[in-house]
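Limitations
The structure tokens in this dataset are predictions for the assembled complex, not deposited experimental models. Users should treat interface geometry with appropriate caution, especially where small molecules or nucleic acid strands are included. An illustrative entry is reproduced here so readers can see what is and is not provided.
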Amino acid sequence: MSGITAEQVAHLASLARIDLSPEEIASLTIDLGQIVESVKKVQEVATPDVPATSHPMPLTNVFRDDIVVPSLTVEQALSGAPDRDGDKFRVPPILEED
Amino acid sequence: MKKAELMDFDKALELYEPVLGFEVHVELNTKTKMFCGCANEFGQGANTNTCPTCLGLPGGLPQVNRKAIESSIRLGLALGCDIAEASRFARKNYFYPDTAKNFQTSQYDEPIAFNGSLTIELESGRQVTVEIERAHMEDDAGKLTHKGGATGRIQGADYSLVDYNRGGVPLVEIVTQMIEGGEADSPEIGKTYVAAIREIVKALGVSNARMEEGNVRCDANVSLRPRGSNILGTRTETKNVNSLRSVERAVRYEIQRQAALLSAGGTITQETRHWHEDTGRTSAGRPKSDADDYRYFPEPDLVPVAPSREWVEELRATLPEPPAARRKRLQADWGFANLEFQDVVNSDLLDAVEATIAAGASAQAARKWWTGEVARLANVAGVAADSLVQPHQVAALIELVEAGTLTDRLARQVLEGVIAGEGTPLEVVDSRGLAVVSDDGPLIAAIDEALASQPDVLAKIRDGKVQAAGAVIGAVMKAMRGQADAARVRELVLERAGSAE
Amino acid sequence: MTDLIKLSAADLGGLLANGSVSSVEVTRAHLDHIAAVDTDLHAFLHVAADAALATADRVDARRAAGEQLGLLAGVPIAIKDVLATRDMPSTAGSKILEGWIPPYDATVVKRLRDAHLIPLGKTNMDEFAMGSSTEHSAYGPTRNPWDQERIPGGSGGGSAAAVAAFEAPLALGSDTGGSIRQPAAVTGSVGVKPTYGGVSRYGAIALASSLDQVGPVSRTVYDAALLHDVIGGHDPLDSTSLTDPWPSMAAAARAGLADGALTGLRIGVVKELNGEGFQAGVTQRFTETLALLAAAGAEISEVSAPNFEYSVAAYYLILPAEASSNLARFDSVRFGLRENPTDGPVTIERVMAATRDAGFGPEVKRRIILGTYALSTGYYDAYYGSAQKVRTLIQRDFDAAFEKVDLLVSPSAPTTAFKFGEKLADPMAMYLNDITTIPANLAGIPGMSLPMGLAPEDGLPVGLQVMAPAKQDARLYTFGAAVEQLLEAHWGHTLLSRAPALAPVEMFASEEGVI
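Predicted assembly:
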């Protein structure tokens, strides 16, 4: 098997900022193990000579002119905010520093 | 960790060799943001410059600002970099409330510019070449303010507020290679390097380059290698050192702090550190950990940037002369002494003086007027000297002085008129009636009157005591309210004194 | 006027243009039918009845004033909830966006409004378009109008069910790995995934940016073409939008009705998307359709696409990887749900984690965790990097095939509609259901599903998938219209006319005009 551990899933959940319950971690560990086992099949044909494709259509140099367009109004910008203080979004205190 | 004690700087250098690295973020001064058409403006009302894209709303998509690409390429070229034939944006994934999408759109393995170098000159005259690893494009984060608890600090705050106006502003991050051999000059290298970057982006016109507004921000990496060892020490990254003096102080502080710690048998933690301007210290931030797995991958919403060689050469042709080379050339051309030249440079008046000379003024006169009267008036008004008056007007003023139409004293009045918006120097001369009286008639009348009222002086002059003429000249100048050429008055006084015989 | 709801969008457009009916009448007929049947069907998450009638009234006024309007002006349309609409909630089927009304319209929605179509409401979908059944909608599944114990396909089961049940003549869908085509197949409707970049993604809540494409859902190929013409074309707000000029898809569809439209057309049957693992009735209808095509003059040959067997694996790496990043913005700061942790300190980090735990369903969490894994340091090359290489190989397979044939065909899905719950416990079985549709998304080429009969064993619709080279969407419409005409002539009726009438009580209510 691919050997996905519960510790790994817990770590992935913290990277993905999802507060998973122990039950969810347990079931996702099984799911992820099976899925990874299945999708690792891609490695069979992904040889070094094959280039990677990130975009289905090979476009390059798609640019916008440096011209100001109207922004949202402040009310529109904040219309979906769970919490606000004046014209700013309000969030609980930040634990870690970046 | 306990509060770090510092080792004496010279002692630290005896024991360890400092190894430096710098990451300088330059905010571009494009009209719009990096990936949307919202205005890139400083100091607007909170969240006024936002849209679905820079707010990270569901469904928002990025569009690359062509001007930002041009500015990045020009900056790369000015740093001697190669410009990538194919370059890509990548997503740097991490959660933070000032990052609307919870990923930064940056560049990872395919930056727009790489392999450059910049030679800086220290005050001692020592030249140091800093190798540039890469210059890549990315978008800035929004601005957080912390409320409650200790004033404005993140620690102990009750809550925080987010303004996304700055979110999405274009940045170029310039990353150096490791700088070795800096030795005791290390702090000065930091300061001079950042100053040089600032000068270059300003000369290119790609950034407002105001460090106090965060247009240029520096992260300083410092590690120490024990003398005789070839193993690199663990480095710390001191974030957001945002003035030239602070760069110098922060590097010096880290060298002294790390040396103290290492020599006491301690180890350096690989971590970000925060510079505190008020105390002159750095403090520990977040240690590097596997939480720093940014899961970079190519940004699927943007296509590769593949600047044609023609485009790159077109942009190269727009590059200004490198600031350091330009300074050398101008000082030689103008024949300024070091102090005179430094005065111009430190007052940020190189462009103004150069333009004034180009408009016909002599170098010394241009320097004298800009660093003298114009700078004085600007200082009073609290604005930059070159925003007060146009170089061609200063040149016109100097021309009037040199032609004898104005005395220095009159010229200062004319300058005030020009600054007050009364027109060109010539127009001010006319409207204020400030020209030197060059018609001899009124002068002769005034001289004859003065000589008549001071017969003893007249007698002295006639006795050959020419210096006595000064009293008459003074009286005449007073009568003419300064609008006379003193040399011509003197000539005429002597002539009239003789002819009165 | 109950027949109004049975008309195609093209026919409605004609009646509206010549003044036989008003848009208000047409809109009201559809709203009445929605009111009658949607409680059971649950194709809609939101019905904007008042706004739709008001819009219809304005369109009627314009017509009355003599304005020349487009072919679909006044025709109602249902919009998949993945698209941002400034006057209706846009939830993408997720609790984390419950009640969220965007301050802007998706480009395709703006184009609908500019063309004077009448938005009826928002259709149900698997949460963030992750699924093949709508069982992953946070608001409960949509039922298949053919058999209410069965899934309507997914993720766009709501849009497909809405058109199949005559709640709307047209709908918008989005297709990341088959979310337009597979629901079309299992509901007996038509769905098109345009060439990647052919239709703007701006305002489409992103699942996997390099795979997502918005497209039309309808009951006829011509209707899909008319809608494609409205929504397609370059959009500077989407950097992956193609700048190519596009031919009229409607004209292409009309060309398919001409005699001999199929003569000499080279049709490739993808060997890897046929036979083993496919339901017998699906294979049977597919084989019969090929025979009809051959009889109509098409040249049928088999082509091999050896790397297609890696497509599901590649897809389930690329999609979760991109999705894990696209869904990071759901963090309780600027919009959507905010949930505090049940205990311990309330910090933004913990609030984000609690919100994402409470707001995302199990399938979304599963894919985010998988995508986070695939992008992690040390795993990137083995998983995400390898998947991108498979993408190259799949494109090469298509390139080689299209050197030999004009179009590729396969069944749209391996089976007919399965029963609710049948595959819910086994994510991999659910994922393998997408084998037929995924290759087109990986390669960016256009694909269409149209009905090709009912499977004899269960009497449920079977879809024919057609794929064309990139940017040759028009070819799909010409061929699709020809096949549709051929099959309907063969059957003597449309497929959807065979769908069971929905609950009689509701039919009665509809006749009474009760909303």
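Some entries come with short summary sentences. For this one: The radius of gyration of chain B is 31 Å.
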